[in-house]
Amino acid sequence: MTDPVTPVTFPPAFLWGAATSAYQIEGAVREDGRTPSIWDTFSHTPGKTLGGEHGDIAVDHYHRYREDVALMAELGLTAYRFSVSWSRVQPTGRGPAVQVGLDFYRRLVDELLAKGIKPAVTLYHWDLPQELEDAGGWPERDTAYRFAEYAQIVGEALGDRVENWITLNEPWCSAFLGYASGVHAPGRTDPAASLRAAHHLNLAHGLGTTALRSVMPARNSVAISLNSSVVRPLSESPADLAAVRRIDDLANGVFHGPILKGAYPATLLAATSGLTDWSYVLDGDLRAIHQPLDALGLNYYTPTLVSAAQEQPKGPRTDGHGASDHSPWPAADDVAFHQTPGDRTEMGWTIDPSGLHELIMRYTKEAPGLPLYITENGAAYDDKPDADGRVHDPERIAYLHGHLSAVRRAIADGADVRGYYLWSLLDNFEWAYGYGKRFGAVYVDYATLTRTPKSSAHWYGEAARTGTLPSPSPETT
Ligand code: FCB
Question: Catalytic residues (predicted)?
Fold first, then answer.
């Protein structure tokens, strides 16, 4: 690890950002023509989210975006990654756009640009218009075509002022938490459908990239954000190493294979042959998916530890993404998941910055020359205001210091990492966990929606303003 005494200084052009997503912060779910997405339906279905919580109001960013942008500017952040709600701009998931929906994002972008904050737009952060799910969702090929049309609409509306674009956020979660374990919307538990969904998400990325480029200035950058797992073996035994290979294919190769190399891993096709024959991969699909990218986004929270197993331990599986009796890993019943050693965040996720370094170095090798962004990294803690109303979160500062140091070390080792987006700007709706997990650098009082920057926000702001990580020790924060 980097010696804490050495100042950890970043290249001058490095972007210091924060990230959010539409359904987690916007609220205003029934305003200005927006229709339900799969997350509206799912969160309003009894038993799907903690305490039945939903994003109807969330943190009301739709009405408070000016305040939120001003906060980022005061802190000194230089970049902001947000997502567009598909059902706000194209309510039925097809056909003409709703201008008032697009106008919201145009105002947000203009506000950011006026404050010198570089916007990065994610087109899809899990909130499929419900009508498209009713028509079959991601397991259906048509959803990829619909995504390309939507990408073109948003690209036309914002491409003149937004340079950094991300097609999909974490397609692994969309495919396997949405359609295999069912802990995310739409909550289906059909392993074969989840593999079809993965392919159509890949196709959506490829067609969406082409659609964006057909309407945007050539200077704009198109990327995808993957939550590539850092998969480690419990032992070096051949069986445990084979387990790593299987999970690596299902977590990573299923996306980066076609996207970066134009092919699904042969080992993935073989391992899943009992579930699917992949006949929905049509001629030309791999060419459509394998578009040259301008950058790659990596989201990292914690590594994954696996071994071979004769059978799964009894009881609901968690694998770190929410409890379900169904596995998010198709064709991997002979793989067991283990808790990695070390301190954990409120999500139960082990804190291990070495995994972030490993991930960056992996893609530096697998995609030489491709600029990388850390499009999400952060930690949930049970933050509470003190008697003076201040929120001290030294654990989050330590987490950020450790992970940003790992990024810096990767840059020193030759990686081309151009920026870092902290997850998240604000406490928000954490999917199946409702409002129970606070990831924000800014505390939100859910009764009043008041925003209070935590000490980590001030710490991170200083890093952004100076390009050097302040000491992580509590007395300086
Ligand atoms: C990522 C998601 C993001 C948030 C963080 C904690 O998987 O992209 O929306 O839930 O995890």
Answer: 170, 376
Query: How far, in Å, from the CA of 10 to the mean position of ligand 1?
Result: 25
- pTM across the whole model: 0.97
Is 24 annotated for ligand binding?
Answer: yes
Separation of CA 171 and ligand 1 centre (Å): 11
Q: How far is CA 334 from the centre of its chain?
A: 28
Residue ranges per structural domain of the chain: 8-228+295-301+346-469
> 8-228+295-301+346-469 maps to which CATH number?
3.20.20.80
Handedness of CA 55, 56, 58, 64 (dihedral sign): positive
Say what percent of the chain tops pLDDT 90: 94
Q: How far apart are CA 471 and CA 397, in angstroms?
A: 9
Digit-coded pLDDT (tens) for 378-409: 999 999 999 999 999 999 999 999 999 999 99
Distance CA 177, CA 190 (A): 10
Question: Alpha carbon of 165 to those of 85, 219, 291: distances in Å?
Answer: 15, 11, 14
Alpha carbon of 82 to those of 21, 22, 63, 197: distances in Å? 5, 7, 15, 24
In the numeric block, which tokens belong to residue 408? 């810096």
State the catalytic residues: 170, 376
423: Cβ below 6 Å to ligand 1?
A: yes
